[in-house]
Amino acid sequence: MFSPQTVSSLLAQAEKALAQHAYKAAHQACIEALKLAPETPDAFYFLGVLTAEHDNHAKAVELYDRAIALVDNVGRYHAWKGRSLIALNQRELALAAAESGAACAELDAQTLDTIGVVFSRAGLHKRATDFYRTATGLVPEKSEYWYNLGVAEQFQGDFHAAETAYRKTLSLTPGHVKAWSSLFQITKQTAERNEITKLETLFETLSDAEDRLFIGHALAKAYEDIGGASAAIAWLTKAKAKKKAQIAYRPSQDRPLFEASEHSLSVAGGPGHEDPSPIFVVGLPRTGTTLIDRILSSHPQVQSAGELTDFALALKRATGTKSRYVLDAETMAAARSVDLADIGRRYIASARRIVPKSRHFIDKMPLNFFSAALIHKALPRARIICLRRHPADSVLSNYRQLFATGFSYYNYAFDLADTAAYYVMFEALIEQFREGLPADRFTEVSYENIVGDLEGEARRLTTFCNLDWDPACLSFHENKAPVATASSAQVRQPLYSSALARWKRYRPGLDRALDILVAAGCMSPEELDT
Fold first, then answer.
1. Model-level pTM?
2. Which residues pair with 443 in a beta bridge?
3. Average pLDDT, integer, range 62-66
4. DSSP states of 325-370 as a string?
5. Are strands 278-283 and 360-363 parallel, antiparallel or unpaired?
6. Into which CATH architecture does domain 253-529 fall?
């Protein structure tokens, strides 16, 4: 016989099991509840959460929708649906789900935080902040809510508020590795006042490869702050060792993508979509792409759209390739059989949902360098700016960066020699684009030249983008727009030259990478002696 109390008990068991990551028990409790009461929305919701935690977000959305069809005014149903939709790169649907969740009454702290996460991942950090603040007010003892608030404050440039939130996170969870990493990113350690010993002790207790990455990178940053370059390299090597062993990366794994990208120069394409609004800023990550974005987006006729995956997604959907990655050799090769003008139209429609009104917008996804030839064929009036930096500094800056570990495109950065080999492939590809793409649509800019002559290079870039000169471009550090990259602190400062030739301070720890660069002709042997 049906018993509401039995169903409620099963749902309570499912929720408790989910919190403990006891997925089998959670699934069983939900199924038992549905056998007794087939129209139980919470059972579908819990199954959706379980499915999402196993990265099957498409199925999770179906389950959330079944819950919503039964009861549509429960905030957490919409919030978690939005979280899965953003994981599926369906930004507009995700935002609509988050707004639906926000409109519901009596939102608990977890739902508020989840709504904030959806807005954050969509690049709407200011919108997210209010939800995080409310969540921390309702449940101040939950460290993860404070951490999410800190990240949102950091990306908006309020580093004092970010530090306060990170410190609160650590007061609640002293071993919160992401909070330590973020805190060290926005603060400067000194020889007289630092927390190095505390983190070294924490590191020795960690066995998880990713936890060791966060704390090891934080320690490397701390030693850099106090002038210990050799110790910084040693900590980076130690931090990356376990993850490097797990992924077993080889440069040969990326070579097919570089080759397919070069071959894309010969794709016929057709007329393309004649929209002049996009400005693509591409290049290796951590070489100054955010700086270019800030310089140009300080112009009153230009708005930054952030780092969009929209072009690669449009290409993937058009080709219909079955490979597991959005950007790969198979998909690049299949571009020969699709309508690139239609991809251009789809890209513009998608990007314009984020930046609907500006005359020009910037897409600052560094990895778009792979797609430069296809972007030109799909959008022949778009401008593409490729940021270049000294080879050794490029290798060092990539090795120093803690990239998202779930994003395999950065697997090269766990080893110095692999990073150098990746740079060599990048250099060869850009040389082909330099020769094969029109100079009025594809240009390169040197980070070193920007530092040496900011106004001259800024004027050249605005001319290249068909913009009238505006002196606001020189005050890029006063730009108030959010920055959701590792450069969130640096680009809010006036231009500085201390990062030039940084590689020289890290020798001999960098020498095996330098040998690869010299052997490939990217650097001269004489430069090593200067």
1. 0.89
2. 385
3. 98
4. SSSSHHHHHHGGGS-HHHHHHHHHHHHHTTS-S-SEEEE--GGGGG
5. parallel
6. 3-Layer(aba) Sandwich (3.40)
